[in-house]
Amino acid sequence: MQPQDRILERLARVRDPELGATIVELGMVGAVRVTGRVAHVEVALTTASCPLRSDIERDVREAVLELEDIDEIEVTMGVLDPAAKASLMRTARALAQARAPQTSIPRRAPVFMIASGKGGVGKSSISANVAIALAKTGLRVGVLDADIWGFSLARLLDITGDVEVRGAKMIPLERSVGAGSVALLSMGHLADEKQALLWRGLMVQKAVAQFIEDADWSQVDVMVIDTPPGTGDIVMTLARLLPHMGQVVVTTPSKAAQHVAARAADFASKSHIRLLGVIENMSGFACECGKVHAPLGVGGGRELAQELGVELLAKIPLRGDVADGGDDGLPVAWHEDGEGPFQELARRLMGLAPSLIPVGCTARLLDALDHAVTEA
Ligand SMILES: Nc1ncnc2c1ncn2[C@@H]1O[C@H](COP(=O)(O)OP(=O)(O)OP(=O)(O)O)[C@@H](O)[C@H]1O
Ligand SMILES: [Mg+2]
Q1: How many CB atoms lie within 10 A of CB 94?
Q2: 79 near 42, Cβ under 8 Å?
Q3: Which amino acids bring their CB within 6 angstroms of ligand 1?
Q4: What is the mean pLDDT of residues 182-190?
């Protein structure tokens, strides 16, 4: 075996801890040369400021210096060009999907995660309403309330009761909605609010994992996941278990919200889940006086979408009936006709669904997604 090949063999043991694959698999190794007993190795990172830079460099050195005929190594750290970065993201995503545990969620069912770096922007209200709007089109919609401490969907959707366990699997509680149905699992079904507050760290991750792995979602056509604010353990567990899901970021029109909301998008790019678009909630309020007031500002959603290189999927106005519907367990989308903002949002999301199905993705869609990722 040539010295270069032996070096490559060693490098194939060095993993990028963040991407969870070897630097060879990920195409991060450039030229490898040997002069005498000195190895020269080029390694390209996704960004120059990669926080794992020194770890990777150290691991490369150690791996190569184990070879008996190499005394020294010169490592040149560079940055991948956009095309190589897009290809790396594709590989990382495919590897994450291949390694993801099997769940009962059918492969053909798109999974939409509603997230935001910011609290109180309307994630739960949107999850509830979009689930209703999707169900009204005849779909069986699975809803996972992944907000373990701050669960609210049992109340918002008025789906309460005890969860049945059949064949060691939890059966989500189902409610008929128009031609379809909504099936929900929430901590609200398993614990009272005081108990939920006592849950911490690992237990929380375990609860989310159980809602996915130990529940029977086999009947759903589409999944909607409501998340707590931020990018903590819960969202990370979701990304690990459901790497093929698409994330939608919710923001209000204000600039401050936009910046905090964007952290969720940053998370999507780091964990290789697809960022589908932005929803601006609490946009202008249509007053009886005939004017549209904008108490929370204007344009935050569009700006965030532009910044992230994705679509602005919906602008949901500030409306009293959105809040009232939550209190009554009758989300406003229940009464909305086909033209309401949540129906429109449901249509847009289903339009993006083909990009989330693990098999049969077209190259064109992948390219568009990779473009969004590399621009982020
Ligand atoms: N478009 C809207 N018009 C009027 N009120 C709204 C709208 N969207 C959400 N609300 C209200 O704003 C409050 C916060 O909404 P919601 O609980 O859905 O936000 P959240 O992002 O899920 O919050 P958290 O981060 O705490 O989980 C609720 O009282 C809800 O009824
Ligand atoms: Mg919420």
Answers
A1: 15
A2: no
A3: 119-125, 147, 150, 152, 228-229, 281-282, 316, 318-319, 322-323, 326
A4: 90
Long-range contacts of 85-91 (CB under 8 A, 24+ apart): 85/46, 85/374, 86/367, 86/370, 86/371, 86/373, 86/374, 87/27, 88/19, 88/26, 88/27, 88/28, 88/46, 89/272, 89/370, 89/373, 89/374, 90/366, 90/370, 91/21, 91/25, 91/26, 91/27
Domain ranges of the chain: 3-80, 111-375
Structure-model confidence comparison of residues 62 and 255, the more confident one: 62
Q: Encoding tokens for residue 134?
A: 């999707």
Q: What percent of the chain has pLDDT over 90?
A: 49
Least confidently predicted of 172-186, 295-309, 322-336:
322-336
CA 318 – ligand 1 centroid, Å: 10
DSSP 163: P
Mean pLDDT of 277-294: 84
**Ligand 2 centroid distance, CA of 250 (Å):** 11
pLDDT higher than threshold 90 for residue 312: yes
For residues 251 and 277, the answer to whether their CB atoms sit within 8 Å is: no
**Cβ-count burial of 93 within 10 angstroms (0-12 exposed, 13-18 middle, 19+ buried)?**
buried
Would you place residue 200 in the very low, low, confident or very high pLDDT band (cuts 50, 70, 90)? Answer: low
The class level of CATH for 3-80 reads: alpha beta
Q: Tell me, what's the pLDDT at 115?
A: 94
Q: Which CATH class is domain 111-375?
A: alpha beta
What per-residue confidence (pLDDT) applies to 360? Answer: 36
Render pLDDT for 218-237 as a digit per residue (tens, 0 to 9). 999 999 999 999 878 888 88
Report H helices in the chain.
3-11, 53-65, 82-99, 123-136, 153-156, 193-198, 201-213, 233-241, 255-270, 300-308, 320-328, 341-352, 363-375
- Euclidean distance between CA atoms 264 and 231, whole angstroms: 6
The pLDDT of residue 183 is above 90: yes
Q: Which ligand is nearest to the CA of 322?
A: 1
* Strand partners of residue 184: 143, 173
Mutate to test the pocket of ligand 1, among 113, 118, 121, 125 (most ligand atoms within 8 A of CB): 125
